[in-house]
Amino acid sequence: MFDEVVHAPNRLRICAFLDASSTAEFSVLRDLLGVADSVLSKHLKVLQDAGYVTISKPTGRGRVKTWVSLTADGRRAYAGHVVALKALLNTPE
C-alpha cells in the first residue's frame, strides 16, 4: 500500500536504511542523508508520530547518543510502500 508518510524521499531513505539494519545512530542517518540535524529531527518526528520508528537515548558514560529503530509497523509500512512502487513500475502504459 502506498504510504504518504514513508514516501517523502528522506523518510524513504531512512526506512530503507533501518530496514537493512536493526538500529542506527542519529549522526549516521544525518550523514547518510546529508542534511542538518533539524531536518533529520523533523523527519524522524513524523515517522515516530506514525509509529514507524522508536527513538532512544540510553544514558551511560560519556556523550549521550540518539538511536533510531524501525518498529514492526514501520517495517510493514515500508515493505508495503516498496510493493506499491514496484507495482507502479510494472504497470503497462
UniProtKB/TrEMBL annotation:
InterPro entries: ArsR-like_HTH (IPR011991), WH-like_DNA-bd_sf (IPR036388), WH_DNA-bd_dom (IPR027395), WH_DNA-bd_sf (IPR036390). Residues 11-89 form the Winged helix DNA-binding domain. This is MarR family transcriptional regulator. It comes from Phytohabitans aurantiacus.
